[in-house]
């Protein structure tokens, strides 16, 4: 087990979107880096919506338990890298002040795909988004992009160098995407600011990987049993963790990531695409098909022989659309993923993974489909994944029970689905949602996704897989 810190580091990182994933991943890596090599890389976390994380951690001095869910049993560790947690809606000025301090060298983000207020189909800033509209006209922002640009604006005015923006969200070429969104926002606010950001700021792309299920009441009780202490905010995660980062930081200022096993590279694209398509793509496909087939978790889903064969078929379709990073076997990577999915200690709910599908589908599944269509490769399992998403967002499962669909486009997707009574009509209506499906791709998908949807609606998920996607 890595050594723990013997001192409380000063703050040099502000993290936007402090949820379970970053506390189970980034905080652990950064604590390990300081334990190995020293330095002050303490973190101020920012909750952009709810005070729940702040309220849970405050009485614990911002420390919490990290629980590794290994097949052979749990391992616990106390994480002490957080110095404070701010709640942006309560005090946006406190967040801005923290980000503007010269000693803050890095701003990290895990705000999920929808948190970037962009169009997932095009990668462009959604200037009609109400948060963006607000932030363009108010100095105290509400969105992650608004906080980034407004804080950089303050630093430029004060003659302070910019921070490095280090996104840790599952977006294709995430650093370049966020750089483009920040610059587009800044140009609308102040063209001179945009020029400064473009010249001085750094946006390294990253690939992050650790399965982190939501913490439950049963987990809280188990942590108390394991440690003998009550922890209001533990995080649960698998043993595996991988972080790949482009080594491009303002002034070269960063923790000693290499000491923790982080892969520092010149270009992360190959790693990103492999993970987005092979892990996140199959995770989403299993979330929709598994949920519809009645499975609560991913482990339950891959324990079903029909769904296990389905994910293997998915990988056979995805791998030709992926360029393997140097020294990586895609077949071995897929085998390792299946072992991780099957870990009985990880209760990663299909419903949790299914959230925000309209934001995830373009990069996780549609990218592979577009590549296969261009190459003339068959993709029946991927078509079925799109059809399963369409059935899921219709809000009613195969038993006629309501689905609690959590998605920023939930109402629009439900209305599109409800506008037709047949699978063919529902597919046509949902393919017309341009925030998800570019027009040219939608036209190419119409026939094969319709065929998959007819099977899915008429025969059920497991039978549709057995007949059309195995």
Characteristic key phrases:
470 residues, Rossmann fold, N-(1-d-carboxylethyl)-l-norvaline Dehydrogenase, domain 2, 2 domains, three-stranded mixed β-sheet, 20 helices, 50% helix, 12% strand, globular
Structure description:
By secondary structure, the protein is of the alpha/beta class. The chain has two domains: 11-265, Rossmann fold; 269-468, N-(1-d-carboxylethyl)-l-norvaline Dehydrogenase, domain 2 (Orthogonal Bundle). The chain has 20 helices and eleven strands. The protein has helices spanning 20-24, 26-37, 52-58, 92-100, 130-137, 144-157, 174-189, 191-200, 217-227, 269-292, 298-303, 305-318, 330-341, 350-354, 357-375, 380-393, 410-418, 423-431, 439-459, 461-468; strands at residues 11-16, 42-47, 64-70, 73-79, 82-87, 106-109, 164-167, 206-209, 235-237, 242-246, 263-265. The strands form three sheets. Strands 5-2-1-6-7 form a five-stranded parallel β-sheet, with helices on both faces. A three-stranded mixed β-sheet has the order 4-3-9, sandwiched between helices. Helix 17 (410-418) runs antiparallel to helix 18 and helix 19 crosses helix 20. The two termini are 42 Å apart.
């Amino acid at each position: 087990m890595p050594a723990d810190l013997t001192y409380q580091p000063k703050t040099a990182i502000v993290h936007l979107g402090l949820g379970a994933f970053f506390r189970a991943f980034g905080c652990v890596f950064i604590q390990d880096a300081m334990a190995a090599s020293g330095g002050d890389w303490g973190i101020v976390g920012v909750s952009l919506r709810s005070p729940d994380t702040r309220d849970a951690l405050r009485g614990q001095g911002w420390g919490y338990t990290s629980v590794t869910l290994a097949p052979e049993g749990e391992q616990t560790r106390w994480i002490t890298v957080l110095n404070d947690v701010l709640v942006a809606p309560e005090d946006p000025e406190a967040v801005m002040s923290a980000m503007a301090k010269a000693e803050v060298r890095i701003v990290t983000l895990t705000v999920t795909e929808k948190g970037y207020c962009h169009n997932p189909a095009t990668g462009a800033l959604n200037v009609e988004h109400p948060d963006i509209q607000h932030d363009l006209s108010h100095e105290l922002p509400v969105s992650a992009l608004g906080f980034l640009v407004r804080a950089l604006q303050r630093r430029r005015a004060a003659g302070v160098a910019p921070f490095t923006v280090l996104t840790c969200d599952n977006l294709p070429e995430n650093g370049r995407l966020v750089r483009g969104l920040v610059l587009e926002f800044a140009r609308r606010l102040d063209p001179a600011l945009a020029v400064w950001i473009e010249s001085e700021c750094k946006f390294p792309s990253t690939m992050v990987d650790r399965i982190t299920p939501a913490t439950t009441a049963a987990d809280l009780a188990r942590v108390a049993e394991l440690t003998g202490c009550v922890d209001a905010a533990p995080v649960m995660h698998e043993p595996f963790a991988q972080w790949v980062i482009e080594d491009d930081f303002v002034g070269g200022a960063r923790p000693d990531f290499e000491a923790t096993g982080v892969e520092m590279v010149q270009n992360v694209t190959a790693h990103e695409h492999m993970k987005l398509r092979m892990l996140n793509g199959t995770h989403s496909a299993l979330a929709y098909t598994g949920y519809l087939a009645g499975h609560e978790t991913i482990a339950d889903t891959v324990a079903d022989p029909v769904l296990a064969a389905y994910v293997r078929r998915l990988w056979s379709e995805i791998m030709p659309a992926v360029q393997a990073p140097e020294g990586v076997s895609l077949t071995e990577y897929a085998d390792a993923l299946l072992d991780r999915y099957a870990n009985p200690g990880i209760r990663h709910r299909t419903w949790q993974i299914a959230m925000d599908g309209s934001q995830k589908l373009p990069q996780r599944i549609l990218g592979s489909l577009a590549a296969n269509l261009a190459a003339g490769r068959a993709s029946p399992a991927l078509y079925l994944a799109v059809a399963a998403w369409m059935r899921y967002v219709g809000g009613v499962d195969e038993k006629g029970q309501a689905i609690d669909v959590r998605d920023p486009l939930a109402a629009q997707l439900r209305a599109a689905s409800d506008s037709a009574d047949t699978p063919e009509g529902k597919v046509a209506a949902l393919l017309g949602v341009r925030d998800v499906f570019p027009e040219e791709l939608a036209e190419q998908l119409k026939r094969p996704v319709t065929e998959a949807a007819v099977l899915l609606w008429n025969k059920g998920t497991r039978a549709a897989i057995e007949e059309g996607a195995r």
